Amino acid sequence: MVLSNRLTYWYLQNKRDLPWRKTHEPYQIWLSEIMLQQTRIEQGLPYYNKFISAYPSVFDLADAPADEVMKLWQGLGYYSRARNLHETAKYVAYKLNGKFPSDYKGLLKLKGVGNYTASAIASFCYNEPVAVVDGNVYRVLSRIFGMDIPINSTKGNKEFKELAQELLDKKDPATHNQAMMEFGALHCKPQNPLCASCPFNDKCLALKENRINELPVKLKKARVKKRYFNYLVFDLDNDGTILEQRSGKGIWNGLYQFPLVESAKLINASELQKMDSFREIVNNDNYSIELFNEDPVVHKLSHQHLYTRFWLVNSKEVNAETISLQTVLDYPVPVLIGNFLNEYLPDDYK
């Protein structure tokens, strides 16, 4: 309880004023937790406000068209979260009459809700004594207790969860969990933590043993894969272009993109035009092609880096359905393409 008391005192003096901390309604808290997975609060807060404004209730979100939800999410990344968010909203609205499950085990059954999110909602909304363990909590516990077991290992996950549960203030788990995460985000930061003013500097083994920068320990990730994307940006005589919706289990499922030709390396125009995937779309010789960006845009994802070039193709006809170029911004697209459109489109199209 000493740790929890110090933590709570620190939290009450330093906590940020965030909208989802002013409610116990599961819809708002669920929405915030899904958005903040792998996302900093500074980045996620504007999106949270936009979603709450557009969809004040779970019924509003459930009734929204999928493309509209994805468009509002655009730029936040990890788009599977948005798809799961929408599916769960429909399930809660239509199958559960708008009522979220009221305990940890029930919440775990919702699509896109894992141990961390279920613990957060259960403790914040229903005061259920389940400990939240996220990246901030791993860091705080590993440093204070000098734990060097990898946090992304099965054994590490189990041991940290057990320790967090043991330390939890069972009478007020909501405040304790919020305090633990906030302390990791603001004070016990990954780089340059504020050790001199830390309420645990008399207890912290990492500080005592000069191991702050060594903890927490993570197993090395798999090697990052390089991929080479060539987007075909068509400018047809009728002010038309082509957008395709991505499908399957790969990245950006459900978002729209220009026709994509993926290559094994950076290629020139001659090599691009010989590829079957190019000829399937441009099935005539009455066209011109020009490279928009000589230096590829490098878009970094967790396990892959995308080296991307945009090719401007002017053609009278193509073997695909077309849309008006002026409507492109109405479609949800990956941030990579969104950035290109901001540079490429005339101002009167925006």
Automatic annotation (TrEMBL):
The keyword Transport does not apply. Its cofactor is [4Fe-4S] cluster. One of its GO terms (biological process) is mismatch repair. CDD domains: ENDO3c (cd00056), NUDIX_DNA_Glycosylase_C-MutY (cd03431). Keywords: 4Fe-4S, DNA damage, DNA repair, Glycosidase, Hydrolase, Iron, Iron-sulfur, Metal-binding. Coiled coil: none annotated. It comes from the Bacteria. GO terms for molecular function: 4 iron, 4 sulfur cluster binding; 8-oxo-7,8-dihydroguanine DNA N-glycosylase activity; adenine/guanine mispair binding; metal ion binding; oxidized purine DNA binding; purine-specific mismatch base pair DNA N-glycosylase activity. It catalyses: Hydrolyzes free adenine bases from 7,8-dihydro-8-oxoguanine:adenine mismatched double-stranded DNA, leaving an apurinic site. InterPro entries: A/G_AdeGlyc_MutY (IPR005760), DNA_glycosylase (IPR011257), Endouclease-III_FeS-bd_BS (IPR004035), HhH-GPD_domain (IPR003265), HhH_base_excis_C (IPR023170), MIG/MutY (IPR044298), MutY_C (IPR029119), NUDIX_hydrolase-like_dom_sf (IPR015797). The keyword Hydrolase applies. PANTHER family: ADENINE DNA GLYCOSYLASE. This is Adenine DNA glycosylase. The gene is mutY.
